[in-house]
Amino acid sequence: AEVISAKLPRLQMLLNASRLLPTHLPLQSKLLWSDVLMSAITHHLSTDPPDIIHVEHLRMAHYGLQLTAKWPVLWDAVDYLASLYEQAARASTSLPLRLISRLEAPRLAAYERRLTSQFRSTIVISNSDLDLFQQGNPFAERIHLAQTGIPMLPTPEQGARASNVLV
């Protein structure tokens, strides 16, 4: 395995997000964008071609979108972020977070739906996220569940042995 990275100063992240304010895109869709990193990724792919590219999280999806024409790209959405931002817009005790979440939630909902049409496959980690992504989505068959983590309740096979498991 090889890790490809590039430094991204906070000021650049702020500029990336602020450029999207007058658009319909979520601020975090290009929050972590780096031309330097994209160049390094492209170079790596040209010298060591993969069978598939796994892009994790919405914040990295823009990199994957640059690669879909030449490579099979899987988007690991993890969560349905629009739902999380809707909850934060209603329940956060932080006024700045509530305001940003109110701006971001509808943008995320539209963008996450669009991403499922642009990647060959999208994976999520919970049934509720799967349901949210698939609701009314013409590309629902491209969205799959890939659960991770440790079960919170013991299975019958585990019995009392698992009663002290911390998650």
Can you tag this structure with a few keywords?
167 residues; 10% strand; globular; 44% helix
Molecular structure report:
- Helix content is 44%, strand content 10%.
- α4 (81-91) packs antiparallel against α5.
- It is α/β, with parallel strands linked by helices and 167 residues long.
Strand runs, count: 4
User: Which stretches are low in confidence, meaning pLDDT under 50 for 5 or more residues running?
Assistant: 162-167
Net shape? globular
Rg, Å, rounded: 18 Å
* Helix fraction bin: 40-55%
Largest sheet: 4 strands, parallel
Mean pLDDT across every amino acid position: 91
SSE string, helices as H and strands as E: HHEHEHHEHE
**Kindly, what is the distance between the CA atoms of the first and last residues, rounded to a whole number of angstroms?**
28 Å
Strand arrangement within the widest β-sheet reads: 1-2-3-4
Structural class: alpha/beta
Binned strand content: 5-15%
Please report the number of helical segments: 6
Outline the fold blueprint.
Blueprint: H1 10-18, H2 35-47, E1 53-56, H3 58-65, E2 73-78, H4 81-91, H5 95-118, E3 121-124, H6 127-134, E4 143-145
Parallel strand pairs: 1-2, 2-3, 3-4
Helix pairs in contact: 4-5
Task: Put the structure in a nutshell.
This protein is 44% helix and 10% strand.
